[in-house]
Amino acid sequence: MCEYPTSMANTSELGESSSPSFHNYASAASAVKLASLGLIMGISLLGNVSLSLLLLKDSSLHKAPYFFLLDLCLADVVRSAVCFPFVMASISGGSAWPYSALCCKLVAFMSVLFCFHVAFLLFCVSVTRYMAIAHHRFYYKRMNVCTCAAVICMVWTLSVAMAFPPVFDVGTYKFIREEEQCTFEHRYVKANDTLGFMLMLAVIVGTTHVVYVKMLCFVYDHRKMKPAQLVPAISQNWTFHGPGATGQAAANWIAGFGRGPTPPTLVGIRQASHPGNRRLLVLDEFKMEKRIGKMYYIITLTFLILWAPYISACYLRIFVRGAPVPQLYLSAAVWMSFAQAGANPIISFLFNKELRVRLRACFPFCLGTQTPMEPYCVI
After folding, report:
1. Would the pTM of this model clear 0.85, i.e. be above it?
2. CA 70, CA 49: separation in Å to the nearest integer?
3. Average pLDDT, whole number, for the chain?
4. Residue 73 · residue 52 · CB < 8 Å
5. How far apart are CA 182 and CA 199, in angstroms?
6. How many helices (H) and strands (E) does the chain have?
7. Residues in contact with 358: Cβ distance below 8 Å, sequence separation at least 6, in sequence order
8. What is the rounded CA–CA span in Å between residue 254 and residue 79?
9. Contact in structure between 122 and 209 (CB atoms under 8 Å)
10. In angstroms, rounded to a whole number, what is the distance separating the alpha carbons of residues 284 and 379?
11. In Å, what is the CA distance from 228 to each residue of 153, 231, 232, 244?
12. What is the pLDDT of residues 311-368, one digit of tens each?
């Protein structure tokens, strides 16, 4: 489908090769770009494929947060394998697009699709992380395989809805020579139709961080020491029931020392018929949920850091007419957005103890002593 066109390359290179020093600089810059993008592509493919295989192979990792992580990894694999080779081809062709206009639109569509997919999925993950910490029992009952599949399908649907309109020239996809990739053509705000897409991306990323701040506040509030407030017990017949009762009167009555009617603390109380239905949260499991939340927040923060320079350059083009964006800054910003495709596996293994343990289990010579289970805690 991607054919060589009759005239697709930009022709704004007049006098480019008139200076030998400029030609040498351009050649060196192209070599650095190709080498760095090849390194990013290799790290992304190796890391994401390895992590995907680990998540698929180990049945103990078949849980909601790791289903979302698997979706992130597969999306980064496709982005690295499909989109990056076209960028390398444009660099090799002298910062010109060597294929057809339709191929440029398809590549740009996939690039924007994967960008919005990461943003939407990280937002959904932040909501599930908050539910896992603040409403653990509800999260445990509701977050099953079907729920995860529904969330992932919803994320892909929203991403396609955001990336598809420019295919019909609503926010045109074009080859941007300064960026050496096919993507949005950001024009001045009065003649711009891409501002809505950029605002949506900024709102989603910002809302994701707000959810994590709310989760952090919840954890902090529940760790804070609060003074004990003693509520006096009430009694009409020396049974002492109510909010401040210690249960001593009921204990005396059960032991045979009580007289009179049954204490109110025992009326209507019965043993649970199905004790197995009540789920206790162990300290180790609670710590694991917090570790997974920390891992996903680092992934979200890395996404923001690596995409912020490029998004800032896009906003500068939109709101400032003829804004001169330095070529060095723009190239670095674009390559930082490319590097995001290989960051997730590194962050996952660094900040998730469970993934490291499962990875070491795949290599028998790396096995060590097992970590003892931690005691239970009452939440």
Report:
1. no
2. 10
3. 81
4. yes
5. 20
6. 11, 2
7. 54, 58, 60, 61
8. 69
9. no
10. 12
11. 48, 10, 13, 12
12. 999 999 888 887 788 889 999 999 999 999 999 999 999 999 889 988 888 877 655 5
Burial letters 237-251, b for 16+ CB under 10 A, else e? eebbbeeebeeebbe
CB 51 within 8 A of CB 73: yes
Q: Which two tokens stand for residue 224?
A: 């804070």
| pLDDT tens per residue, range 162-186 | 998 877 766 578 898 899 999 988 8
> By C-alpha distance, which of 160, 37, 174 is closest to 103?
174
The alpha carbon of residue 263 and the mean position of all alpha carbons in its chain are separated, in whole angstroms, by 54
Q: How many CB atoms lie within 10 A of CB 233?
A: 16
Rounded CA gap, 104 and 25, in Å? 27
Residue whose C-alpha is closest to residue 101's, from 194, 173, 185, 187? 173
Q: Scanning the structure block, which residue is given the tokens 């912020």?
A: 308
- Give the domain ranges of the chain: 28-223+281-351
With H, G, I as helix, E, B as strand and everything else as coil, classify residue 80.
Answer: helix
The tokens describing 239, both together, are: 């049974």
Sign, CA dihedral 271-276-280-284, equals positive
Reading the block at residue 27, the tokens are 């050649």
d(CA 244, CA 309): 58
Residue with tokens 């991607």: 2
State the angle between helix axes of 20-57 and 327-339 in degrees (0 to 180), rounded to the nearest 10: 20
Give the H or E element holding residue 123: helix 101-134
Q: And the tokens for 299?
A: 């992934």
pLDDT tens, 291-315? 899 999 999 999 999 999 999 999 9
Question: 325: burial class by Cβ within 10 Å (0-12, 13-18, 19+)?
Answer: middle
End-to-end, the C-alpha distance of the chain in Å comes to 58
SS3 for 322? coil
CATH number 1.10.287.500 is the correct assignment for the domain at 28-223+281-351: no
